[in-house]
Amino acid sequence: MNWLILAAGGNGERIKLPYNKIFYKIGRKPLIYWTLKNFEDSSVIDKIIIIAKDKEVEKINKIVKNYKFKKIDAIITASHTRQDSTLKILKQYRNIFKEDDLIGVHNAVNPFVFRQEIEEVYKMAREFGSALLAQPAKDTIKISHSQNTVKNTPLRPSCWYAQTPQVIIHKHMLKAFLQAEKDQFIGTDDTQLLERINVMAKIVPCSSLNFKITYIEDLLLVKDSLKNFLKQNV
Asked: φ, ψ for residue 137 (rounded to 5)?
């Protein structure tokens, strides 16, 4: 079975909206609608679990009902961090997830992921044990020392901007998250935890439209991005 965990419990401090950006209206619908619709319409996704802040569960549930999303298995209250929230689901579903189930994790504020990208990243995760969508770096990347002096410059063809979904076979995912919990290690994304148990994810290139809405200036891009996305997502 192919599952998707939708991470919708962030605080969004950097965007400076008075409410969670998942409720920001794009094309007269909340942002989370567009994200959910991509996975609802995907033939490879069987079930969706949403991580949400406790005070927003009811509001998200209304969106699910109003737009008749059928694949939602549960809306789970978020923990302190995204990593803790995902681990909470892994523990709660430990007797439900099968060892070879694929578990994808996707940012609710990445609304423009193409159906063919979803299909490909799940296909590659099945083959390699883990896969993620990523964009090839357009700019030169610099690795710095602690005081922001340049340490080295990696070759640009080997640099990628990690996006989501990141998809992992359950047996690897559970092991990686439990090991991180034991070591009190907090990663910046899910596949980083896999690297610590020597499981290397397959990179699947994705469109530049699949970006995480993080800053206020990102909101200036979303309307044009939606138009382009709807034209191409066929």
From this structure: -65, 130
CB hemisphere CA count around 197 (13 angstroms): 23
Residue type at position 41: D
Whether 170 contacts 100, CB under 8 Å: yes
Range of the domain at 135: 2-227
Q: Give the pLDDT band of residue 10 (cuts 50, 70, 90).
A: confident
CA nearest 113: which of 193, 209, 21?
A: 209
CATH number of the CATH domain containing 130: 3.90.550.10
Q: What is the pTM of this model?
A: 0.95
The secondary structure of residue 201, as a DSSP letter, is P
How far apart, in Å, do the first and last CA atoms of the chain sit? Answer: 24
pLDDT at residue 184 greater than cutoff 80? yes
Q: Which stretches of 44-118 are assigned E, i.e. beta strand?
A: 47-52, 72-77, 102-107
Gap between the Cα atoms of 108 and 89, Å rounded? 16
* Alpha-carbon span 28 to 193, nearest angstrom: 37
